[in-house]
Amino acid sequence: MRNRLVAHIFAANRFHIKPNTMRRDIFQAIADPTRRAIITLIALQAMTPNAIADNFNTTRQSVSKHLRILTECELVKQEHQGREIYYSLEINKMKEIDKWLNQFRKIWETRFNQLDKVLSTIKKQKK
Amino acid sequence: MKRDLLFDFTVDKAAKTVFVNREFAAGLSLVWDAFTKQEILDQWWAPKPWASKTKFMNFVVGGRRFWAMVSPDGQERWSIQKFTSITPKTNFKMSNAFSDKDENPELPGSDWDLNFSEQNGTTKVSITIYNESLARLEKIIDGFKEGFTMTLNNLEELLATLSR
Q1: Which element (helix H / strand E) includes A110?
Q2: pTM attached to this predicted model
Q3: CB contact, 8 Å: A97 with chain B?
Q4: Domain check: are A77 and A96 in the same one?
Q5: Could you tell me if the ipTM is greater than 0.90?
Q6: What is the DSSP letter of A47?
Q7: From CA B123, how far away is CA B133, in angstroms rounded?
Q8: Chain B partners of A90 at a C-beta cutoff of 8 Å?
Q9: Which residue ranges of chain A lie beneath pLDDT 50?
């Protein structure tokens, strides 16, 4: 049993298999248009749930639900000021998404730069 | 010269779709071949230091390409592409799925739509990739982590993308 565990940890490190699902959760969080709109709103300033809800044609309960999901994904943080709770954006978590997308873009960039070379080689051979 | 060629990459997270547009300094026939012939594909499809190895490719409607991305130390990640529609030198569509070495697909996969057009000797390729799950996209990147340096763009740029 112990050996299997060690082997699993080894494989996980080696092949970058991540047991945590945190980052997947982030993408589920931002796959929703209302949640994306909330992110854009509170990127500019910290806001209370009521102030956020004023921007949407939806119930406060629904906005609360979205805020809970965003909080669970650590995309937003809460700050208590007196009786009010203010929500603001967790910038580092957002950067993580940005970093992830850039890696994907980089794959395509590299792939196409390689194709440029292949195409120019074939063109030369044909001449 | 290369700098003038278009390259854009956008992700519409709500629609779970990735758009990639790129121009190439070559004629339509050649670019079409580069995307549809296995001996050319294997020369560029895998970003270095990875290598692309195609076991077989039957570029007809209903045909398949069974291929692997091979890491520098020889690890193979197999995938199956199934061609669902082909309009020569104009468009082809395929479904894509990771698989094991025995051709058993891991679903869900992604659906690809590739368009080709030529203007003044420059060929533009527009690719639309629909993924059933964004987690799957993440898996692609995790597989490539080695060999890539990460770039951090600023938050404003990200927000502009998100609000689109």
Answers
A1: helix A91-126
A2: 0.66
A3: yes
A4: no
A5: no
A6: B
A7: 31
A8: none
A9: 1-24
Residues A69 and A96 both lie in one domain: no
pLDDT in tens, chain B (164 residues): 444 788 888 877 667 788 889 998 888 999 999 999 998 999 889 887 788 999 999 999 999 999 998 888 888 989 999 999 999 999 999 999 889 999 998 887 889 999 999 998 899 999 998 886 666 666 666 555 443 322 222 233 433 444 44
In which domain, by residue range, is A71 found?
1-89
Query: Checking phi first, is residue B91 left (phi over 0); if not, alpha (psi -120 to 50) or beta?
Result: beta
Domain with B24 in it = 2-163
CATH number of the domain at A26, please. 1.10.10.10
Per-residue pLDDT reduced to its tens digit, B56-97: 999 999 999 999 988 888 889 899 999 999 999 999 999 998
Count of structural domains, chain B? 1
Size of the A and B interface in Cβ pairs below 8 Å: 122
- Domain with B64 in it: what CATH number? 3.30.530.20
Judgement on whether residues A120 and A60 belong to the same structural domain of the protein: no
Question: In chain B, which residues have their Cβ closer than 8 Å to the Cβ of A45?
Answer: none
